[in-house]
Design brief:
Length: 273
């Protein structure tokens, strides 16, 4: 039993080191990001009220989906089956105590994300072709939350709580942050991941909506122009991939830290005995 516990703790440690390396790459990418000159020039030509309108639409989209849309989203996947898969994979990881089993959950999450990416691409380009920009936001946010909800389930987490919604919103904001803002937001996400709780949902909805509006301003403005809007709609899968990449990494880290605490507690119990 002691050998298996030690083997499991080693596997968890190595997986956390791998997560840390991926976090470092994301941090470096966030630091390097600069707004291209051509984009700055185009954004100057967008009416000032457009940004405010976009922020309001994103706020409304988050609020509507959290309040009324979760049940609709849940109809698009088998929540119970995903939960059962998690329990089986989590049990296998604890029984065998190796990295292969720990990685199996990550692999399952990646496979489910590929299907959602295809749907997001079709939705964005399809609406962009007809010059539908702002209405697309509700659909896009719904697809995004669908992917996040599924990821949470694959790691055995209930997403339908105020605390988890706050955590989700903070991760979404961080995924779009740049430079020092990314570092600050990421630290706040890690604090939540470790158990520090904040539940200012409305305030966080505003912050996340603002981050989305600022970053997606040009794409959503262009998407409102028929035919040319294909360019804007094609941006949806890019943002989907970027946000889900960060979210999946953090949920994986959270799962590993939870396991690490569990096995550390087992060691302490064994020592006392």
């Amino acid at each position: 039993m002691a050998d298996k516990t030690k083997r499991m703790k080693t596997a968890i440690h190595k997986e956390l080191l791998a997560v840390q390396k991926q976090e470092q790459k994301l941090a470096q990418a966030a630091q390097k990001k600069e707004t291209p000159h051509w984009r700055e020039e185009l954004e100057k030509k967008i009416p000032p009220k457009t940004l405010q309108t976009l922020e309001q639409v994103f706020c409304k989209a988050f609020s509507i989906i959290f309040e009324k849309g979760t049940g609709v989203i849940e109809k698009s996947y088998n929540k119970e089956a995903i939960g059962e898969d998690y329990e089986i994979q989590d049990y296998a990881a604890k029984v065998k105590g190796n990295r292969k089993e720990l990685r199996r959950i990550k692999g399952t999450v990646q496979k489910s994300g590929m299907r959602d990416m295809a749907l997001t691409t079709a939705e964005g380009i399809g609406l962009g072709l007809f010059g539908i920009g702002l209405p697309d936001i509700v659909v896009f946010v719904g697809m995004l939350l669908r992917g996040i909800y599924e990821t949470a389930l694959h790691y055995g987490i209930d997403y339908n709580t105020p605390e988890e919604r706050y955590f989700i919103l903070k991760m979404m904001e961080t995924a779009l942050a740049k430079g020092d803002a990314w570092q600050q937001c990421n630290q706040e996400v890690d604090a939540l991941l470790m158990g520090s709780s904040k539940q200012q949902i409305k305030e966080q909805i505003n912050q996340t909506a603002s981050a989305f509006a600022v970053d997606m301003l040009l794409l959503k403005f262009v998407q409102g122009i028929p035919v040319v809007g294909i360019v804007g709609g094609a941006g949806n899968p890019v943002y989907y991939h970027k946000i889900l990449k960060y979210v999946k990494l953090k949920y994986q880290k959270r799962y590993l830290i939870t396991l690490q605490r569990e096995y550390t507690a087992k060691d302490l119990y064994t020592d006392k005995c």
